[in-house]
Amino acid sequence: MNVLFCGAHPDDIETYCGGTAALYKKLGANVFFCVATSGNIGSSNHTMEQIKAIRRQEAQNGADTIGAELIMLDFDDEFLFDTRETRLAFIEAFRRADPDVVICHWTHDYNPDHSTSSRIVDDCVHMATIPLIKTETKPTGKNKIPHVYYMDTPAGVGFEPQIYVDITETFDTKVKMVGCHESQNQWMLDVYGTDMSGFLQVPAAYRGFQCGCKYAEAFRPSIRYGRTFNDHYMPNTLVPRQQH
Ligand SMILES: [Zn+2]
Description:
Elements lengths: L1 E6 L4 H15 L3 E8 L10 H19 L2 E7 L8 H14 L3 E4 L7 H13 L22 E5 L11 E4 L4 H9 L3 H10 L8 H11 L4 E6 L15 E2 L6
Parallel strand pairs: 1-2, 1-4, 2-3, 4-5
Antiparallel strand pairs: 5-7, 6-7, 6-8
Helix pairs in contact: 1-5, 2-5
The structure holds zinc ion.
């Protein structure tokens, strides 16, 4: 199985679904991390070029922690737009990864790069199979439309989960992966008044409390024509009970 995670910024995948990525890897899946922007505004004291280079290395270290393959699209941070150029870059990433499962941001996430990348993924995932849309890598010819899931939002705001993944056994790995993004600890303190640990412990425990395990990550499936389904291709899944 090939699983492609699409994050807008270099630390998003690890922060919102790193525990699930580690689980997929433990189960033998080929895992790809596609990062849309370079993160080149994420610093109070570096130049754009400096922080871009720092964050590229941090993203590589995060991916290397579990043996994921990193694909950087290198668009400008906070200026990701849905254009022909960005769509073709995502289509090329889909062709390189040949995914069975794609995990992207929630369409209504507060951050514009998050929501824009989500819409590009949802709109373009099937276009990777079309031969007349040319990119460097040719379509596989299998006409495989992957399942798409949305990851949780920052602090879970405005996100109603439909699937939980029990990440208790990989939570320490997730902390290690996010710890690779050292430059973002100070940035998060400068901008939001919390360090990166605030984005890990509390949401994982809260989502775990909701579904009956210690630590969890939350998701929603994207239900569209061509990818409606009964089985969820996710590890350790817990589905909320019906409300009475
Ligand atoms: Zn982000």
